[in-house]
Design goal:
Blueprint (H helix, E strand, L loop, with lengths): L7 H28 L5 H28 L6 H6 L6 H7 L4 H22 L7 H23 L23 H29 L5 H31 L11 H26 L3 H24 L15 H23 L11 H13 L1
Helix pairs in contact: 1-2, 1-6, 1-12, 2-5, 2-6, 4-7, 5-6, 5-7, 6-7, 6-11, 7-8, 7-10, 7-11, 8-9, 9-10, 10-11
C-alpha cells in the first residue's frame, strides 16, 4: 500500500464534510441572491450542485477503492467484505450495509440534482433555483446523518486480518442492481416533489409546473418499477424470502411510494392537459416524498422486523426519525407559507419568506 493510500479514508470523510457544507451554503446563497434579484442566481445554484456532486462522487469512489483493495482498516469494509470475494461482489458490497447504502442514495440524489440543474440551465423562472435549493437541503439532512451517525470511513486499529464476508443471501446479482434502481427511483420522485414544493413558494402550481413535475416523476417511477420487479425476482430465487412477494415491511416500503407515484403521474397528466387536479397533484407529490423517506426509516432503523432486513441499526433509529421529522417540518413550513399568502409569483424575495427559510436552515 502506497503512503498516500493510507489517508484515503480520511480524504473520503473530508469530501463528505465539504459536500455537506456546500449543500448547506448553496440554498442560503440562492435565497440571498433571489432576495436581491441577482440575475446570476441560477448559475450560482448550478455551481453548488455540481460541486456537491463531485465531492460525493469522490467520497464514493474512495469507498469503492477501499473495498476493491480489501482495506480492512476501515470498519465498514471489514464488516461487509472478504479478500476472496469476486470484484463484482466487492463492488455490490459497497451498498450491502447501512453506511454504504445511504452514501449511494446521497450520490444518486445528487446526480438527479445536477441533471435537473443542467436541463434547467437556461431557465430564468424562480421555480428552478428554488427546486435545487430544496434538493440541496434534503441532501444536507441526509449527509448530516451520515457524517454524525453512519460514517463509512470509520477506522479500526489494529486493522482486521480478514473481513467478515458479505451476507451469503446478498451474494446475488440482485444486490448489484436492485438497491441502485430503488434509489434512482426515489431520487427522481424526490426531484418531482421538490418542483411541486418550490411552486408553492413562487407563484402556485399550474399546468407548466405539472409538465415539469411529470418529466421528472416518470423516469423515477420507471426506475422504481424495475427495482421492485428485480427485487421480486431476487426474493423468488432466495428461498428464505418467501417467494415473489411476502408482504413484509421491506417490500411494502418500496411499494407504497410506487403506488403514490402511480397516482401522481395520472394526476399530473390531467393537471397538464386540463388544468384541474392541481391540489391532488400537490398532495400526491408531497405524499410520495414522505413515503420515500418513511420507507428508508422503516428499512434502516429496525423498527419493524423483516426477513429482508440486512442494513438496519436500532441505535440509529432515533436520528433517522429526527431526520424524517425534520424534512416533514420543512414541508409543513412551505405549505403554511403558501397557504397564508406569504409568497406569490411577483414577490418571491419578501422578508417573511427569507426569514422562514433562514430559520429552517439554522434549525438544520
Amino acid at each position: 500500500m502506497h503512503n498516500l493510500d493510507i489517508f484515503l479514508p480520511e480524504a473520503g470523510f473530508l469530501a463528505l464534510l465539504l459536500s455537506l457544507g456546500v449543500n448547506v451554503l448553496t440554498p442560503l446563497a440562492t435565497w440571498c441572491g433571489m432576495g436581491l434579484h441577482w440575475r446570476g442566481v441560477m448559475r450560482l445554484t448550478t455551481c453548488g450542485a455540481w460541486t456537491a456532486f463531485t465531492l460525493l462522487l469522490l467520497a464514493f469512489a474512495i469507498l469503492v477503492s477501499c473495498f476493491l483493495t480489501s482495506d480492512f482498516s476501515v470498519v465498514y469494509v471489514a464488516q461487509h467484505s472478504h479478500s476472496q470475494l469476486s470484484w463484482g461482489l466487492k463492488l455490490a458490497a459497497v451498498w450491502g450495509g447501512h453506511e454504504g447504502s445511504l452514501l449511494l442514495w446521497a450520490l444518486l440524489l445528487s446526480g438527479w440534482t445536477v441533471l435537473f440543474a443542467w436541463r434547467s440551465r437556461h431557465e430564468s423562472d424562480a421555480l428552478f433555483p428554488l427546486t435545487l435549493s430544496i434538493l440541496s437541503l434534503i441532501m444536507a439532512s441526509l449527509l448530516l446523518f451520515i457524517v454524525l451517525w453512519s460514517d463509512p470511513f470509520l477506522r479500526i486499529f489494529p486493522p482486521a486480518m480478514e473481513g467478515r464476508d458479505l451476507n451469503p443471501m446478498l451474494q446475488h446479482l440482485g444486490l448489484i442492481l436492485h438497491p441502485p434502481l430503488l434509489y434512482l427511483g426515489y431520487g427522481g420522485l424526490m426531484t418531482a416533489a421538490s418542483v411541486a414544493l418550490a411552486s408553492l413558494l413562487c407563484g402556485g402550481f399550474n399546468a407548466a409546473t405539472a409538465w415539469v413535475c411529470w418529466r421528472w416523476a416518470l423516469p423515477g417511477w420507471c426506475a422504481l418499477t424495475l427495482g421492485i420487479i428485480l427485487g421480486s425476482w431476487w426474493a423468488y430465487c432466495e428461498l428464505g424470502w418467501g417467494g415473489w412477494w411476502f408482504w413484509d415491511p421491506v417490500e411494502n416500503a418500496s411499494l407504497l411510494p410506487w403506488l403514490a407515484a402511480s397516482a401522481l403521474l395520472h394526476s399530473l397528466y390531467v393537471s397538464r392537459q386540463r388544468g384541474s387536479f392541481r391540489h391532488w397533484s400537490l398532495l400526491l407529490a408531497i405524499l410520495t416524498l414522505i413515503l420515500s423517506l418513511l420507507g428508508t426509516l422503516i428499512v434502516r432503523s429496525g423498527i419493524l422486523l423483516s426477513v429482508h432486513a440486512f442494513a438496519l441499526d436500532n441505535v440509529r433509529a432515533v436520528p433517522l426519525f429526527i431526520l424524517f421529522c425534520r424534512v416533514k417540518s420543512g414541508i409543513a413550513c412551505s405549505v403554511r407559507l403558501a397557504g397564508t399568502g406569504a409568497v406569490s409569483g411577483d414577490a418571491f424575495g419578501r422578508r417573511k419568506v427569507r426569514n422562514a427559510h433562514s430559520d429552517d436552515a439554522a434549525a438544520l
